[in-house]
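Running this now, will post back.
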Amino acid sequence: MGDPAGVGPEIIIDALCEFSARPVVVFGERAVLERAKRMSPNPRASALELTLVETSVESKYSDGIASAASGRASIASIEGATQACLSGDFAALITTPINKTALRLAGSSFPGHTEMLASLCGDRSVAMMFASNALNVMLVTIHLSLRDAIDAISTETVARAIQQAHDAAPWLSINGQRPRIAVAGLNPHASEDGLFGQEEALYIEPAIRECQMRGIDVSGPYPPDTIFMRAKRGEFDIVVAMTHDHGLIAVKLDGIDHAVNVTVGLPFLRASVDHGTAYDIAWRGAASSKNLLHVLNWAHSAISK
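Update: finished.
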């Protein structure tokens, strides 16, 4: 369900009015979702029959405001759905936005879905990848400050991201089984032979060589300011970017409605929308379900391959 104070419940109702490719079970709070049905501008909403696993019954939230209650409800729905996927009950987990402040108010130390899911699945090594119509981007680091993200870059973390990008290829619309992976440098001009930093020589290039020895089609590091343009032209299937905003600015410029956030490394497929709780428009009938509908269709296609 996501954060009940955000747009998650609204977009779930609107998207399910349009999605019929396979059954969907919602983990969340019935009172919240029934309210979303009543408020939905979609004429099909009133007749929509939800298959629901109720994970919280607080029902006391302030629209568009982070709170401990909304954080607890978010956590409960994630935990319930994750355990069901681990039990083999479902083929995929689709998540709607949660709010990091609400999670903290509820006592959680996780900065987002990705880290929470990794913990719930036994502290697995996971990665965040974004798939869109024009770009597939794997991140080496995710929810860290820029200073901490730079410190987290190592041969091991870069090689892991390259391997996970390679392993994710079956979910993507890629011609051929062996994806062409391009690695972005960290520094301007990919350091220009060490003029603008040493991370490329110390960590990124050794990681690329290591993965090439495994038989992975990977090259780089390439200047970060041109690599995405080259990928959009069709030179590469997946780009590995060093930091969160490094990769996601390019993805979101291509259009939020057509991007999917994928967690790679879990024992099941997890996909999510590419936007946040949108507290500023929550529960005003202004939220668009286009991205969630795209995620549902993408996940259906991925697990049907």
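Residues 126-261 form a domain with the Isopropylmalate Dehydrogenase fold (CATH 3.40.718.10). More later if anyone needs it.
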